[in-house]
Amino acid sequence: MLTNFAADLIVKTVRMQTERQTQIMESALELIAEKGIQGLTIKNLSKKIGISEPAIYRHFDSKSSILLTILNNFKQMAAMLSGIVPTVGDTAFDKISFIFSKIIQLFIESPSYVTVIFSEEIFKNDIQLKNKIIEVLDQNGQTIEIIIRTGQENGDIRTDIDSKNLALIVMGSLRFLVKQWDIKGKKHNLKLEGDQMLNSLKLIIGNS
Questions:
Q1: For residues 85 and 97, what is the distance between their CA atoms, to the nearest angstrom?
Q2: What distance separates the 2 farthest-apart alpha carbons in the chain?
Q3: Which of 161, 169, 145, 129 is nearest to 82 (CA)?
Q4: What pLDDT, in 10s, does the model give residues 136-166?
Q5: CA-only gyration radius of the chain, Å
Q6: How far apart are CA 154 and CA 135, in angstroms?
């Protein structure tokens, strides 16, 4: 069940999709949460939703097209967050903290996105999915890099390391933290660990 933050973002991204397409994607994410990425099959989806397999194929031509739409939705959600960034805080690190904490919140509220975005196995043999996840990662990395570059110009962020490498440190820290949480069964407090990671990142990239 999605709570306020995740639900609000997702609602804003599905306005161009039909009600049935939205239902299929939500059920796909629920299946991933229950059975892992291997459990996402058209047969399992039809049973879960209570419609025939041909009915699903009228909206999505394959499992890959469902995953591609889920990734597109996540990309749009990340773009929405980026659009809010200019109005957030006074320093570059305020803006980084906003993106970092909101993405963590989204993963906590809708953990199936972690499985989709960080599951290397689903991208190995599907070039479309592979290219889409590269788009998502590049978009988020570029957003962080621009914030860092502006922060360097304003004296908020250290300048002895270039903005691209500092962005990689931030994005890599987020990926490792979330992936570790996922692998360990989502048992520890991701929000608390995210806040602790942000404090460490501030020491690492800040211009103290």
A1: 10
A2: 61
A3: 145
A4: 888 889 999 999 999 999 999 999 999 999 9
A5: 18
A6: 29
CB 114 within 8 A of CB 182: yes
- According to DSSP, residue 33 is labeled H
Q: What is the pLDDT of residue 1?
A: 40
Count of CB atoms situated within 10 Å of the CB of 90: 9
- The counts of H helices and E strands in the chain are 11, 0
- List helix spans (H) across 18-62: 19-35, 42-49, 53-57
Q: How many CB atoms lie within 10 A of CB 107?
A: 23
> Considering only CA atoms, which of 86, 73, 181 is closest in space to residue 143?
86
Q: Are 27 and 49 in contact (CB under 8 A)?
A: yes
207: which strand partners?
none
Q: Give the model confidence (pLDDT) of 5-63 as tens digits.
A: 555 555 555 555 778 888 898 898 888 888 878 888 999 999 999 999 999 998 998 88
User: In sequence order, what are the beta bridge partners of 206?
Assistant: 157
CA distance 136 to 151: 23
For residues 26 and 5, what is the distance between their CA atoms, to the nearest angstrom? 16
**158, 207 contact by CB (below 8 A):** yes
What is the C-alpha separation between 157 and 95, in angstroms, rounded?
A: 12
